[in-house]
Amino acid sequence: MDKIPQPLDNQLLDLIDGTLSASDKEKLEQQLAASPELKRRFDELVQVNYTLKSSVPDQPSKTFTQQVMAKLDSYPVPTGLSARNGLLLLAGVLVAIGIGSLLLANGVFDSPGSIDLNNMVLQNQYMKEPLPSIPFNGKLVVNIIIMLNIILAFLVLDRTILKPWFDKRADMHY
């Protein structure tokens, strides 16, 4: 018997608990006498049952309820950024967005360029084959950076200005 089936395992547990009928108990005891693996499993279950019954459940401390109730009344932990630092970060992000948009509108990034990998030292010394040049669109890169800055600005605005403002309004019961 490689693995003891679940119904037989349940019968062993019923035998330990004393809830097995007399006829089933007799059949199971015969199977226990015939199978050393079944006997080993029965001994394991008896040991686990003894350990669980002899263990004392942990008692919480006497001040547990008072500690929980005191923590319920405590104020929430403030966000990572203070309002001043958040405003400074928001101002910096808005300035970066403004400068990037101004440069983009003036056409500074309109000319397409390419990154030429053949001028690098690696190509001449270690590689004999010419490397491809990678086209580079500065306008697209600046647009992506501006979009990421706008997302960052909204996150900072929400965390440092809007959330505290709405929390104060909720505390004042408006």
Report on this model:
The model has no long low-confidence stretch (mean pLDDT 82). It contains 7 helices and 2 strands. With 174 residues, the chain is mainly alpha-helical. The chain has 2 domains: 6-54, no CATH class; 83-171. A two-stranded antiparallel sheet has the order 1-2. It is elongated, with a radius of gyration of 37 Å.
Topology:
Elements (H helix, E strand, L loop, with lengths): L5 H12 L4 H13 L1 H19 L9 H9 L10 H23 L7 E4 L4 H5 L7 E4 L1 H34 L3
Antiparallel strand pairs: 1-2
Task: Please summarize what this structure is.
The protein has 174 residues and is mainly α. It is 66% helix and 5% strand.
Distance between the termini: 71 Å
Structural class by helix and strand composition: mainly alpha
Domain module tally: 2
* Biggest sheet strand line-up: 1-2
What is the H/E string?
A: HHHHHEHEH
Amount of beta strand: under 5%
| Global outline | elongated
Main attributes?
2 strands, mainly alpha, 7 helices, 174 residues, 2 domains, two-stranded antiparallel sheet
